[in-house]
Specification:
Strand order of the largest sheet: 3-4-5-7-6
Distance between the termini: 56 Å
Largest sheet: 5 strands, mixed
Helix content: 55-70%
Structural class: mainly alpha
Number of strands: 7
Oligomer: single chain
Shape: globular
Bound molecules: zinc ion
Number of helices: 29
């Protein structure tokens, strides 16, 4: 395998020297990274390096595959399964760098490359999973699996690789394989386009405020941030709000001007639905139709069946049953919340019906009436670096990890922080990048990914991305509670990547089923706002005073406040996803009509808009969460159940922490998810802790 890469590099060298194209010769993506811990040499990588690097890496990978199938010796686990699992390293290296940079530092050029590359990589991977000779070898080994001596991890690898071929269409006839290739190729391009459109629509809208009166109700810090955004847009003495959440949510919560709240929220919920060049409606219905067609080619009724077949939940019925149970319990709670908000509106003499652009504003008011608590009272205790250090402290107390900030490691943007992570014995564990603030070149939301995944002998290089409140004026970045939880959430994913201790990259870190992957991340969220933990890290950014007990008390008392809204907003999206992916035909529907019908069927209340409307539901139409958005809630059952053990035995109970590390955080996908959970917990998870936490029992 190594030989193949070297051969191709030499071929590339000759090609370069005779055609005088120095870029191919000096392509840093194709050379060994001469950096600390072998992280990507960001300062050397130029946009024009990607396409030649992809081309070389795909060629190298194909040669490795040829080597496997042309082996004249009988197929064995080692010469086929293991070799296959270890192949394509250069391609993974190039694509992980490209994909991560395209997500957090994109440009027109990068998007153009993505559009060029998507069909090529789609074809490349289809060429492998539809390679009959290769499948024949894999199948032969799979059929003898009872007779060969394999470790648990090797058995798992064999199962997953075999299943991957089946699911990739290896059993189809030539004609159907051709259809599948076309579907995969078209889907790859459509998904990219969908994502790009959402980013463009998010960047395109600006609420420009020219009169000071229109800022009425907004906290000073929010006004300062809006002034900064205006300046960045070349506007003096004006204020700009955008549909990026750190800008939009405070405006919705505090702006007294109702018509302006309406304007901003409408802009947010209409992204991708404006009948302009960035409209996503046709794209998403085409994706839904192609998904159904693909599922049926592969012998499933619909795409959800295809996806769930390898998840913990197994069938759409199980997901619907779980999600509907939550929905039915949460809807009346949210309806009661709406009644309370309406009462507040009426008591103020507001002569109107509560609408979705009012919810944040009146719930914030009600929160401060009821609990004498305003989100802004909490922010000073959650300065970004302190919150980050709070998360590091929890990982230290649970797993003994240490985090050392390094300024000698290349970064791709000046705002990115980078840490070396050390084991309890001070040996190197991995690298962690943290990229905190929004910019127009970065996708929305928060996510974790890897520049390099862990495998035997190779340490992980993990990256986390956020879109948080920025420092403004003389204030550092002071986070909202939601942002605090998000920090711990993504950090939980990062730990899953960092603590991974697997032999094969294919099974390592977060390569688990979609409805298990949010468990290690959400588990960490429990620590972010636990009173015992808050006392350890939440300190006033100016005075250093530890968050006072009475503030924690108020915060705790208001814990379930507005939770009906939160659960309904989320669950509606989980169900919308399931309806899109249980379509049993390939008819291309009217996207808005379909969405409306689903909402009507669910009795969705008009005062709440589904967390993601279809035209900007990137999780399911661009990311890997099709028939998988329910996963967050599903995994909440696991994390609530798991955290209840720590609540009982102590938040840093050493024995429980080591069970958690040894069976969950370090194990990747080396055994089925439920088996791993039971090994940690001693039994399957019960619903109780989840229902109680959400006030649904
Ligand atoms: Zn997550």
């Amino acid at each position: 395998m190594k030989k193949a890469i070297i051969t191709i590099l030499i071929a590339g060298f000759f090609l370069a020297s005779c055609t005088q194209k120095p870029t191919e010769m000096d392509n840093p993506l194709l050379s060994k990274f001469d950096t600390p811990f072998g992280v990507p040499p960001f300062e050397k990588i130029k946009v024009e390096h990607f396409i030649p690097a992809y081309e070389e890496a795909m060629k190298a990978h194909s040669l490795e595959i040829d080597e496997i199938i042309n082996n004249t010796e009988p197929p064995t686990f080692k010469n086929t399964i293991e070799k296959l699992a270890m192949s394509g390293k250069l391609l993974k290296q190039v694509s992980s760098i490209f994909n991560n940079l395209n997500a957090s530092l994109t440009s027109d050029k990068m998007q153009e490359i993505a559009q060029t590359i998507a069909p090529l990589t789609s074809k490349h991977y289809d060429d492998i999973s539809l390679n009959a000779k290769l499948f024949k070898r894999v199948k032969l080994i799979y059929e003898q699996k009872e007779d060969i001596k394999l470790s648990t991890e090797q058995q798992r690898l064999l199962d997953i690789i075999f299943k991957g071929f089946e699911r990739g269409g290896a059993n189809l006839n030539d004609e159907d394989q051709e259809k599948l290739r076309k579907i995969n190729g078209e889907m790859a391009i459509l998904k990219l386009k969908f994502d790009e459109n959402v980013l463009a629509e998010t960047n395109n809208f600006k609420l420009i405020i020219e009169n000071k009166e229109d800022l009425s109700g907004l906290p000073v810090s929010v006004i300062q941030a809006a002034e900064k955004t205006a300046k960045e847009n070349g506007l003096d003495n004006k204020w700009v709000f955008t549909t990026h959440k750190p800008s939009m949510l405070p405006f919705l919560a505090y702006a007294d001007k109702r018509d302006l709240r309406k304007k901003l929220h409408k802009a947010y919920i209409m992204r991708g639905d404006n009948n302009n060049e960035y409209d996503n409606k046709k794209i998403l219905t085409r994706i839904a139709s192609l998904s159904a067609e693909k599922a049926q080619l592969l012998g499933f009724e619909n795409y959800a069946e295809y996806v769930l077949d390898v998840n913990m939940a197994k069938t759409p019925e199980k997901v619907f049953s779980f999600t509907n149970k939550v929905w039915n319990a949460a809807l009346p709670i949210a309806q009661a919340e709406a009644v309370e908000l309406q009462k507040l509106i009426d008591s103020e003499g507001g002569n109107f019906k509560l609408e979705h652009w009012d919810w944040w504003y009146y719930s914030e008011k009600l929160r401060s009436h009821k609990y004498n608590l305003d989100e802004e009272m909490l922010r000073p205790y959650f300065e970004l670096n302190q919150v980050r250090d709070g998360a590091f402290m929890v990982a230290n107390k649970l797993f003994g990890l240490k985090f050392i900030e390094r300024d000698d490691i290349p970064v791709y943007h000046k705002d990115v922080q980078v840490f070396e992570v050390l084991n309890p014995d001070d040996s190197h564990l991995g690298i962690l990048y943290m990229d905190w603030f929004p910019r127009s070149s970065k996708g929305g939301g928060a996510w974790m990914d890897a520049f390099r995944k862990q495998e035997e002998g190779i340490s992980p290089v993990i990256t986390t991305n956020f879109n948080f409140t920025e420092p403004s004026g003389d204030k550092p970045a002071l986070l909202s509670i939601d942002e605090v939880e998000t920090t711990f959430h993504e950090f939980g994913h990062a730990l899953h990547g960092l603590l991974s201790n697997c032999k094969y990259e294919k099974l390592s870190g977060t390569s688990v089923t979609r409805d298990f992957v949010e468990f290690p991340s959400q588990f960490m969220e429990n620590y972010s706002t636990d009173p015992e933990i808050l006392k350890l890290y939440a300190k006033h950014y100016k005075t250093g005073e530890i968050i006072p007990d009475e503030l924690i008390e108020k915060f705790k008392n208001s814990g379930l406040f507005n939770n009906g809204f939160v659960v309904v907003e989320y669950t509606a999206a989980a169900l919308l996803d399931m309806y899109w992916n249980t379509i049993n035909d390939t008819v291309e529907r009217d996207a808005i009509q379909f969405e409306n019908d689903v909402m009507t069927k669910m009795n969705m209340m008009p005062e709440i808009i589904v967390r993601y409307r279809s035209p900007y539901f990137t999780h399911i139409f661009a990311g890997g969460y099709s028939a998988g958005y329910y996963s967050y809630q599903w995994a909440q059952v696991l994390d609530a159940d798991a955290f209840s053990v720590f609540k009982k035995k102590g938040l840093f109970d050493a024995e429980t922490a080591s069970l958690l590390k040894d069976n969950i955080y370090s194990r990747g996908n080396t055994e089925p998810s439920m088996d791993l959970y039971v090994k940690f917990r001693g039994s399957e998870p019960k619903l109780d802790a989840f229902l109680e936490r959400n006030g649904l029992n």
